[in-house]
Amino acid sequence: MKILLIVCDGLGDRPIRELNYRTPLSAAEKPNLERLSLIGIKGIMDAIAPGVRPGSAPAHLALFGYDPKKYYTGRGIFEALGLGLELKEGDIVFRFNFATVDDRMVVVDRRAGRIGEHTAELAEALNEISIPGVELVFKEAVEHRGVIIMRGEGLSWKVSDTDPGKTGLKVKKCEPLDSSPEAIKTASLVDSIVKESYRVLKDHWVNRDRVKRGLPPANVVLPRGASILTKVEGFEERYKLKASCIAGGTLYKGVAKFVGMNVLNVAGATGTYETNYKAKVEASLKALTGSDFVFLHFKQPDLAGEDGDYKRKIEVIQRIDEALEPLITLEDTLIVITADHSTPCSIKTHSADPVPIMMCGEEVRRDYVEGFDEIKAAKGGLNRIRGLDLMPIVLDVVNLTEKYGA
Amino acid sequence: MKILLIVCDGLGDRPIRELNYRTPLSAAEKPNLERLSLIGIKGIMDAIAPGVRPGSAPAHLALFGYDPKKYYTGRGIFEALGLGLELKEGDIVFRFNFATVDDRMVVVDRRAGRIGEHTAELAEALNEISIPGVELVFKEAVEHRGVIIMRGEGLSWKVSDTDPGKTGLKVKKCEPLDSSPEAIKTASLVDSIVKESYRVLKDHWVNRDRVKRGLPPANVVLPRGASILTKVEGFEERYKLKASCIAGGTLYKGVAKFVGMNVLNVAGATGTYETNYKAKVEASLKALTGSDFVFLHFKQPDLAGEDGDYKRKIEVIQRIDEALEPLITLEDTLIVITADHSTPCSIKTHSADPVPIMMCGEEVRRDYVEGFDEIKAAKGGLNRIRGLDLMPIVLDVVNLTEKYGA
Question: ipTM, 2 decimals?
Answer without folding.
Answer: 0.92
